[in-house]
Amino acid sequence: MRRKDDEKEKSIKEAVVKLILELGFHGTSISKIAKEAGVSPATVYIYYENKEIMFQDIYYEYSEEIFDYLLSMVYKNMDGHELIEILVRGYYTYIKENGEIFHFVDQFSSCPALACHCLDRKGVKNLNNLFEEMKQQRVLKDIQNDNLIAILFFPIKSIASNQCIGEVERDDLLKELITIIQDALLA
């Protein structure tokens, strides 16, 4: 039996992200992934049973990475203003520093086949637990967590992805957005 190699696995993941963004789900084949990764198709099957499982596994890994990144900046007993600013700026920074991975995750986050497993993910559970704790402490308004997530994170994508504005204008938009979100969500 052939052994797994971390570098080959990394190359395969990078190839998947690149090709999905360029060609979409249906345009991306195992042979194209293997060619882009510089491995044989047989090597791809050492790591993943099939294309669908590969896409799912990579999606879950990278979406968890985003949650881990954000939640690593949160500490116990932080005040609501700081929490919102850290989450907003952290998400913005993640998008800017990991654009391809973010767009891959974003593209797959609306996939119905993946939606049924959303609540099973550790990152979502941890974020929901944080929100529940902050609501119990009366830091956040008692708003459904899906709405908290939408208000906190969706507007940031718009700012981070807008190629028509410069960094100074983006920073001004982020500052204003943080204030708007704080006014909307803090108890």
TrEMBL record:
- Keywords associated with the record: DNA-binding
Q: What Gene Ontology molecular-function terms does this entry list? A: DNA binding
The protein's matches in Pfam families, at most eight in alphabetical order, are given as: TetR_N (PF00440)
Q: Which Gene3D superfamilies match?
A: Tetracycline Repressor, domain 2
Where would I find the HTH tetR-type domain in this sequence? 6-66
Record has DNA-binding as a keyword = yes
State the organism of origin: Clostridium estertheticum
The keyword Heme is annotated on this UniProt entry? no
Q: Which PANTHER family match?
A: ACREF/ENVCD OPERON REPRESSOR-RELATED, ACREF_ENVCD OPERON REPRESSOR-RELATED
Q: What is this protein called?
A: TetR/AcrR family transcriptional regulator
The residues that make up the annotated DNA-binding region are 29-48
Name the PROSITE patterns on file.
HTH_TETR_2
Highest taxon above the source species = Bacteria
Which interval of the chain is the signal sequence?
none
The record's InterPro entries line, in alphabetical order, gives:
Homeodomain-like_sf (IPR009057), HTH-type_Tx_Regulator (IPR050624), HTH_TetR (IPR001647)
